[in-house]
């Protein structure tokens, strides 16, 4: 029969499909391969708002003040030292000498002035190049940046703000090479030039961003030649690439894969709690949530331990409030609300809801810092059902969700905040001060407590950290008694490392500091 | 013939205009805007207003549309809101990767589909025919993302034969072999559903054709069986098959979005998904225009193929 030909073709095709075609892939020496969850948007830290862009961009540019290896306390960066005037309005920085940008431009006070003013001064010749989304949020309070001498720069504020040093650690406060911005114009965002441990080398869209080491990095010698970042959305693909040796480091290991990595001889799992909080917001102005007993009851009703253990597989740490535990502003005496459905029912009865009530919970399908929003909310829904509160879950796409929260029609809503630093002002003020009610600000719970407002305002005007901590501790105790949200968890970041990676540590700020890595 | 082609190409203009209006409306009328997403949950109303004004989002919709159309008429698709890069270069660069993937998927599904279909038709109800029927059912019901992950786990993770994702090795590499090795899993994943459709259709049309009188005549006058099947049978069965392959080409372009996401393939699909999530209007409009254009062109090619395959078909 002539069909034999077809058969043969078929067999050949099948063999072609499944034949082992192991490529001659060998890990290039000195090259660190990193798997990101998404591709960076651009690399100008003043223009981006997403984690992946910052994790790459911050290798290239640096800030005046920064965080040490294991915490988010403020330490010197490009500035060696600083003084703050008595009235808290003038911050004077002594700059590190002898540092140059990757393009040879000297780092000096002019460069600092240029980097900040291009964002806040509409008349600045380079203001129109970008959109600088956070310029107002971070630097709206800056009146002027003054060059005292080449190695001294002074920030003049409109009103005192004790968290200003922390603001200067943010990506938007990165110092860029003025020469490069002038040369590249709008394209600067695609090929930034800074003073950091790595220089921009190449970007193949959708495939990889390559950074080469800065051989004359001022802080310490960089031990790897280059870093290649690859965007891989699918969790299984990221993990497979790591376990087959095509990647050295992946972040955001999906909770379901955590045990797989832990048991693999080829990889190690690293965890680090991040400066983040996941909360179930409550509209404090709506009946029945305007009664604090109802809000307390909701906190008692939710089994946070179960969420962290079963949904997040240990990638979350219980939250007692907005401030990250074990940081200078946290109240170590605070206890998380225990899971106590009986107490919840009692409180509901006292508030006049012995048989509960019905409400709606808005949940985004995904979103920056949202962990596993839908499964987490489903557990919350069933917990609340058990105390008589029947909840309708409404899931939305992230963009639509953010728009919807502006309507003030929310009853319950799932949201998170990634401050990236431990200053209590940077999380409590925007989220809970009554001047920040949505839509003007991010206080979407429409929370208002006069004593709390007062404490926060007072803390802003106090430069002494010890005194500030005292004020914040009192504020946190108020939040336990008069809870604005159901407190859920602080994300524990995860990274999986190939065995050849040495000297890496996840950072509480969510930054990905690969400059400390050496390859075995 | 030439006049026909010119007329069809001219028809592209209203089609693309229609597509652009629809996509423009869908994007702008869906909740959430680029400013909202860029600023995220930390946005203040003042920052939002400022950014919206800078992005021109406060203009009435028709003004924004006409402005964009004006750019397009000058061959400029604008700058991506989100990535700050010119849209045209970005989309064309990514479209190349999608074409490679879709092309490979189409070749695989056509070759295997035809072979399976012919083999089944020549020996209906044989073991091969039954297996192919079962495989078809299976192939048509497997979701792309599931099949992709299963193939990835088997061939990359367990066997270590093929790379799990990407288009080239992360560093070094970049030659044809590197590309083919990376192409294997996504192309097979993409082709799986189409193979079965093409195979089933080929089988039924071939069965019908092989039952025709001229086939019996050919056999009676002693033509060798291979020529009977391929020259007399297949050639006459090709019109519906070409139609369905054309439809599949369009389907594969669309299906590539999922496959690209699973395998981190740097194509226009992943770009479009990111663009939609970021409400990056110029970027999404650019992507959709390019995909719509290629869809229309594929249809044109299919129509022209009819005339070439069957001399009785004429276009005037």
Mean pLDDT of chain B: 88
Report on the biggest sheet of chain A: 12 strands, mixed
Proportion of residues in helical segments of chain B? over 70%
Largest interface (CB within 8 Å) is between: A-B, 79 and 81 residues
- Cα shape of chain A: globular
| Structural class computed from helices and strand pairing of chain B | mainly alpha
Q: Give the ordered list of helices and strands of chain B.
A: HHHHHHHHHHHH
Please state the oligomeric state of the protein chains shown.
Answer: heterodimer
Describe this structure in words.
- The complex is a heterodimer of chains A (520) and B (316).
- Helices cover 29% and strands 22% of the residues of chain A.
- With 520 residues, chain A is of the alpha+beta class.
- In chain A, the strands form four sheets. In chain A, strands 1, 8, 9, 10, 11, 12, 13, 14, 15, 16, 17 and 18 form a twelve-stranded mixed β-sheet that branches.
- In chain A, helix 9 runs antiparallel to helix 11, helix 14 runs antiparallel to helix 15 and helix 15 packs antiparallel against helix 16.
- Chain A is globular and about 70 Å long.
- Chain A starts with a helix and ends with a strand.
- Chain B has 316 residues and is mainly α.
- Chain B is 77% helix and 0% strand.
- The radius of gyration of chain B is 24 Å and the shape is globular.
- The relative contact order of chain B is 0.15.
- The mean pLDDT of chain B is 88.
- The chains are: A alpha+beta (520), B mainly alpha (316).
- Chains A and B meet through helix 1, strand 10, helix 7, helix 13 and strand 17 of A and helix 2, helix 3, helix 5, helix 7 and helix 8 of B.
List the helices and strands and how they pair.
The complex is a heterodimer of chains A (520) and B (316).
Chain A: H1 3-18, E1 31-36, H2 51-57, E2 65-66, E3 75-76, E4 79-84, E5 90-95, H3 109-120, H4 135-139, E6 142-149, E7 152-157, H5 164-167, H6 178-184, E8 198-204, E9 208-213, E10 226-231, H7 235-243, E11 249-251, H8 258-262, E12 267-273, E13 276-282, H9 292-301, H10 304-311, E14 316-318, H11 341-350, E15 358-364, H12 373-386, E16 390-396, H13 398-405, E17 412-418, H14 425-432, H15 450-460, H16 465-481, E18 485-498, E19 501-502, E20 518-519
Parallel strand pairs in A: 1-10, 1-11, 15-16, 15-17
Antiparallel strand pairs in A: 2-3, 4-5, 5-7, 6-7, 8-9, 9-10, 11-18, 12-18, 13-17, 13-18, 14-18, 19-20
Helix pairs in contact in A: 9-11, 14-15, 15-16
Chain B: H1 2-29, H2 34-39, H3 45-54, H4 61-73, H5 87-122, H6 127-141, H7 144-158, H8 176-210, H9 213-220, H10 225-262, H11 268-277, H12 281-309
Helix pairs in contact in B: 1-12, 5-6, 5-8, 5-10, 5-12, 6-8, 7-8, 7-10, 8-10, 9-10, 10-11, 10-12, 11-12
């Amino acid at each position: 029969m002539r069909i034999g030909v077809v058969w043969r073709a078929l067999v050949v095709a099948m063999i072609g499909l499944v034949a082992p075609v192991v490529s001659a892939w060998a890990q290039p020496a000195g090259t660190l391969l990193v798997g990101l969850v998404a591709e960076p948007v651009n690399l100008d830290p003043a223009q981006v708002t997403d984690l992946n862009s910052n994790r790459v961009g911050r290798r290239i540019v640096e800030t005046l003040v920064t965080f040490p290896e294991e915490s988010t306390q403020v330490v010197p960066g490009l500035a060696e030292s600083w003084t703050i005037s008595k009235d808290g309005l003038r911050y004077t920085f002594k700059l590190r000498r002898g540092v140059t940008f990757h393009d040879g431009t000297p780092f000096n006070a002019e460069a600092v002035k240029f980097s900040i003013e291009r964002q806040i001064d509409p008349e600045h010749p380079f203001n129109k190049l970008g959109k600088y989304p956070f310029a107002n949020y971070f630097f709206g309070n800056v009146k002027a940046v003054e060059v005292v001498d080449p190695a001294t720069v002074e920030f003049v504020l409109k009103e005192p703000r004790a968290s200003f040093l922390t603001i200067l650690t943010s990506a938007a406060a990165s110092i860029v090479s003025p020469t490069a911005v002038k040369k590249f114009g709008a394209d600067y965002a695609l090929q930034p030039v800074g003073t950091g441990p790595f220089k921009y080398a190449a970007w193949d869209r959708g495939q990889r961003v390559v950074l080469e080491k800065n051989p004359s990095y001022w802080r310490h010698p960089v031990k790897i030649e280059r870093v290649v970042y690859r965007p891989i959305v699918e969790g299984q693909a990221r993990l497979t690439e790591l376990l087959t040796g095509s990647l050295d480091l992946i972040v955001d290991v999906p909770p379901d894969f955590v045990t797989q990595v832990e048991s693999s001889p080829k990889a190690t799992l690293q965890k680090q709690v991040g400066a983040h909080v996941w909360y179930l917001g409550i509209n404090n102005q709506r009946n029945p949530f305007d009664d604090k007993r109802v809000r307390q009851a909701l906190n008692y009703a939710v089994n946070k331990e179960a969420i962290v253990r079963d949904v997040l597989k240990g990638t979350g740490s219980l939250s007692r409030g907005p401030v990250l535990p074990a940081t200078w502003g946290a109240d170590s005496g605070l206890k998380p609300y225990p899971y106590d459905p009986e107490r919840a029912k009692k409180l509901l009865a006292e508030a006049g809801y012995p048989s509960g009530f019905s409400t709606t919970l808005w949940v985004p399908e995904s979103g920056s810092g949202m962990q596993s929003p839908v499964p987490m909310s489903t557990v919350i829904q069933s917990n609340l059902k058990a105390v008589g509160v029947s909840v309708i879950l409404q899931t939305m796409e992230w963009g639509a969700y953010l728009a919807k929260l502006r309507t003030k029609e929310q009853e319950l809503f799932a949201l998170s905040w990634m401050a990236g630093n431990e200053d209590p002002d940077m999380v409590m003020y925007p989220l809970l001060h009554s001047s920040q009610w949505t839509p003007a600000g991010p206080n979407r719970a429409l929370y208002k407590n006069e004593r709390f407002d007062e404490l926060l305002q007072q803390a802003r005007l106090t430069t002494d950290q010890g005194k500030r901590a005292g004020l914040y501790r009192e504020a946190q105790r108020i939040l336990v008694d008069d809870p604005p949200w159901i407190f859920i968890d602080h994300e524990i970041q995860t990274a999986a490392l190939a065995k050849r990676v040495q000297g890496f540590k996840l950072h509480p700020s969510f930054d990905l500091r690969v400059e400390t890595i050496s390859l075995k | 013939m030439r006049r026909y082609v010119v007329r069809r190409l001219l028809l592209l203009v209203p089609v693309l205009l229609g597509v652009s209006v629809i996509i423009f409306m869908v994007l702008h009328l869906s909740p959430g805007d680029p400013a909202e997403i860029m600023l995220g949950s930390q946005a203040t109303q003042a920052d939002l207003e400022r950014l919206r004004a800078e992005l021109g989002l406060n203009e009435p919709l028709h003004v924004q549309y006409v402005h964009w159309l004006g750019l397009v008429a000058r061959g400029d698709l604008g700058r991506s809101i989100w990535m700050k890069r010119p849209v045209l270069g970005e989309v064309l660069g990514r479209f190349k990767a999608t074409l490679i993937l879709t092309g490979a998927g189409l070749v695989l599904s056509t070759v295997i589909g035809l072979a399976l279909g012919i083999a089944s038709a020549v020996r209906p109800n044989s073991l091969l025919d039954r297996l192919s029927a079962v495989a078809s059912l299976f192939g048509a019901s497997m979701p792309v993302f599931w099949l992709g992950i299963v193939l990835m786990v088997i061939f990359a993770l367990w066997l270590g034969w093929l790379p799990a994702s990407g288009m080239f090795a992360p560093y070094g590499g970049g030659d044809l072999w590197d590309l083919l090795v990376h192409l294997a899993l996504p192309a097979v994943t993409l082709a799986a559903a189409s193979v079965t459709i093409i195979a089933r259709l080929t089988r039924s049309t071939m069965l019908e054709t092989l039952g025709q009188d001229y086939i019996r005549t050919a056999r009676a006058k002693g033509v060798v069986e291979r020529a009977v099947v391929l020259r007399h049978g297949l050639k006459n069965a090709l019109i519906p098959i070409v139609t369905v392959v054309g439809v599949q080409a369009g389907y594969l372009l669309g299906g590539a979005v999922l496959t690209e996401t699973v395998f981190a393939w740097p194509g226009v699909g992943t770009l479009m998904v990111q663009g939609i999530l970021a409400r990056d209007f110029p970027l999404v409009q650019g992507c959709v225009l390019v995909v719509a254009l290629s869809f229309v062109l594929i249809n044109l090619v299919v129509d022209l193929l009819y005339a070439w395959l069957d001399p009785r078909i004429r276009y005037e």
